[in-house]
Amino acid sequence: MKTLVIISHPNINESSSQQFLVQSFPDSREVSMHYLEGTYPNGKIDVKKEQALLKEYDRVLFQFPFYWYSSPPLLKQWFDEVLEEHFAFGYRGNKLQGKEFGLILIIGVGEKEYQTGGQEGFSISELTKPYQAIAKKIGMHYLKPLTIFQFPYMTEAERMKLLIRYQQWLMIENPDSLKAREAWMVNQLEETSRETLDIAESSFILEQAIEKIEDNRIELDELRMHIDNNDQ
Description:
- By secondary structure, the protein is of the alpha/beta class.
- The chain has nine helices and six strands.
- Strands 1, 2, 3, 4, 5 and 6 form a six-stranded parallel sheet that branches.
- The longest helix is centred in the last third of the chain and has 32 residues, at 200-231.
């Protein structure tokens, strides 16, 4: 699974949330970052270059602040120009079919405001319908968005959880699956364990963490089997 993260922000250097995500970017040859405003400071998009880039990846994620229920202007321009007829749709416009389409949204308002009774009046799912429609029109599989609410107010523990969620969204198939996230976590712990084998105490702690995750998975699988049997 090769993932391309297309970032749009008018001033990324002054955004604490974007800087956190950029610094959290996984060190992997399978994941690439593409900052639109940095690539096209004059706003003139190289359409053919962008189209060629899209062909190289299996998953395309768009990371941006959710301004007025939409994206920054350069990303809107990118959609208008790059996803053109005969490339993304229309006659022979099947170049992106079967790929994955996802959103990473940085939102300044609290999550509760996008729920029933909230001040915004609409859910994130409702407000992102245009992006869902784009994915459908060009034959891409729309993923559930990764939503980041009120980053400046997050605690250190919450930011660490976000770092893990972010890397999982970029690196694993079906990132919304608990089982897939557990498998990823075990893999990361095993890699860390191999790197620190000379430190006996650290190695023991990591092995205990892996064992705990695997034990929890067994319990969940047994519980699901029990529920399935009762439903029959």
